[in-house]
Design a protein that fits this description.
Helix content: 25-40%
Number of strands: 14
Largest sheet: 8 strands, mixed
CATH topology of the largest domain: Dihydrodipicolinate Reductase, domain 2
Bound molecules: nicotinamide-adenine-dinucleotide
Radius of gyration: 20 Å
Strand content: 15-25%
Shape: globular
Number of helices: 12
CATH superfamily of the largest domain: Dihydrodipicolinate Reductase, domain 2
Distance between the termini: 48 Å
Strand order of the largest sheet: 13-12-11-7-10-9-8-14
C-alpha cells in the first residue's frame, strides 16, 4: 500500500516506524520545513529510501504520488483542511489525535470520508495495547457487573522548551490545553471501556504555571455516564519535576482493574468475581507479534480496516465523542456549571481569552 506522511515533527518517528513495521511502501514525506523532512528520511533504511520523494506542499505530493494511505501529524488546527484534501484525492487517512478542535470540523471530516468512500482513522493508539484490549473485553462481557466509576490521571511535565518548539502548542486555535492534547487518549478510553456516552460533566480548568500559553495546564472533571456510572479526570502538565505514570482504573460491583504506565501495561489490580481468572492469558490473547504497543498496532488495524479485513475498533465517530467530552469540560469550567451532552457547534476558539 502506497503511504505518505504529512508533518515530520516530534511524533513523526512513531509513524515512520509503524509504517515500516507494517511493510507499507513509503513513497513521500511532506513538511514545510526542509530540515524536518530530511531528518525524517534518515529514519528510513537506506535500501527503502530511493522510492521516497520529499515534498513541501501536500497538494503537489497528493497529485504526483497518489498515495492510498496518508498519515497526518500536524498541529490540530490544520487537520480538517489537510485531511479533507487527502480524502478528496482518494487517500485513506490516519490523523493524529485529537480529530479536530471543533465539532463542526470533525463532522465535515467524517462526512468527507463517507462521501469519498475512504477510511478516516484517528490515532488513539492506546486502544490497541493488549492490556487495554483485555480490559475492554472484560467490560464488554459484563465481568464488572454494574459499572460504578472510572478514573484517569495524566500527570505530565511540559516546560517552556516544549511549547516553544511548536508555535501551535497551547493555543486555542491550534491545540487547546493539556486536556485536549495529553488527556484525550484517556477521555476516549473512558467512554470506550465504560461502554456509554457521557450524560453530564462538571469541571474546573486553570492555567497555573504556564503564563506563555493560552489554554489550560490543569483540568479536573467529574462525569456522569448515561448508564449511571461516574468518572473523574485529572490532567496536568504542571507535575514537578517530571512526568509521573499515567493511570486508569475501572470499578464495578464484581470487578476492579487498575492500570499504570505510558501504554497502561502495568497492572496494579485485575480482579473479577467470575470470568477469566488467568489475567496473563486474558491480556496475552491480544498481543500482536513484533508490534509492541503504540502506533504500529494501530497501523496494522487501520490497514485491515482499509482492506475490509478488520472490524472498525476505533471509528472516527468515537474520536468525535472524545473531542466532544473535552469541549464539554471546557464549557463547564468556563460557565461554572454542569453541562449536559450532546453538544453542538462548540469549538476551542469559543474559549479564547479565558485565562487572560
Ligand atoms: N498519538 C500521540 O501519542 C501523540 C504524541 C505527540 C503528538 N501527537 C499529535 O501529533 C500532532 C503533531 O504533533 P508534533 O508534536 O509532532 O508537532 P510538531 O510541531 O513537532 O510537528 C508538526 C510538523 O508539521 C509541519 N507542518 C506544519 N504545517 C504544515 C503543512 N501545512 N504541511 C506540511 N507540514 C506542515 C511542521 O513544520 C512540523 O515539522 C498533533 O496533533 C499532536 O497532538 C500525538
Amino acid at each position: 500500500m502506497k503511504y505518505a506522511l504529512i508533518g515530520c515533527g516530534m511524533i513523526s518517528p512513531n509513524h515512520i516506524k509503524a509504517a515500516l513495521a507494517n511493510d507499507l511502501e513509503i513513497v513521500a514525506l511532506c513538511d514545510l520545513v526542509e530540515e524536518n523532512r530530511n531528518k525524517a528520511l534518515e529514519l528510513i533504511p537506506e535500501g527503502k529510501r530511493s522510492i521516497v520523494t520529499l515534498y513541501g506542499d501536500h497538494k503537489e505530493m497528493l497529485e504526483k504520488e497518489k498515495p492510498e494511505l496518508v498519515a497526518i501529524a500536524l498541529g490540530s488546527g490544520l487537520k480538517r483542511r489537510l485531511s479533507v484534501d487527502c480524502m478528496e484525492a482518494g487517500a485513506n487517512v490516519i490523523v493524529e489525535k485529537p480529530i479536530a478542535l471543533s465539532l463542526e470540523d470533525a463532522d465535515v471530516m467524517i462526512k468527507t470520508a463517507e462521501e469519498c468512500g475512504v477510511k478516516l482513522i484517528v490515532n488513539h493508539q492506546l486502544r490497541f495495547g493488549n492490556t487495554v484490549r483485555a480490559l475492554k473485553e472484560e467490560a464488554q462481557a459484563g465481568e464488572f457487573g454494574k459499572l460504578l466509576h472510572g478514573t484517569v490521571q495524566v500527570r505530565r511535565n511540559r516546560n517552556k522548551a516544549y511549547f516553544d518548539a511548536g508555535k501551535w502548542r497551547g493555543t486555542w486555535a491550534n491545540d487547546g490545553g493539556t486536556l485536549m492534547n495529553q488527556c484525550i487518549h484517556y477521555t476516549d478510553l473512558l467512554q470506550w471501556v465504560m461502554g456509554s456516552d457521557v450524560d453530564e460533566v462538571f469541571a474546573y480548568t486553570d492555567r497555573m504555571t504556564h503564563p506563555y500559553i493560552e489554554a489550560e495546564d490543569l483540568g479536573l472533571a467529574v462525569l456522569k455516564f448515561k448508564n449511571g456510572a461516574y468518572a473523574t479526570i485529572e490532567g496536568t502538565v504542571n507535575t514537578y519535576p517530571k512526568n509521573l505514570s499515567d493511570s486508569m482504573a475501572v470499578f464495578g460491583e464484581t470487578g476492579t482493574v487498575s492500570l499504570r504506565g505510558k501504554t497502561l501495561d502495568d497492572v496494579e489490580a485485575w480482579s473479577f468475581e467470575e470470568g477469566p481468572q488467568n489475567r496473563d492469558q486474558a491480556i496475552e490473547q491480544f498481543a500482536i507479534e513484533n508490534m509492541g504497543t503504540g502506533h504500529a498496532p494501530l497501523y496494522k488495524y487501520a490497514i485491515g480496516v482499509i482492506n475490509g479485513k478488520a472490524d472498525n475498533l476505533c471509528p472516527a465517530t468515537d474520536s468525535r465523542k472524545a473531542l466532544e467530552l473535552i469541549l464539554a469540560i471546557y464549557k463547564s469550567a468556563a460557565e461554572g456549571r454542569p453541562v449536559k451532552l450532546p453538544l453542538t457547534g462548540v469549538s476551542t476558539t469559543d474559549f479564547e481569552g479565558r485565562f487572560n
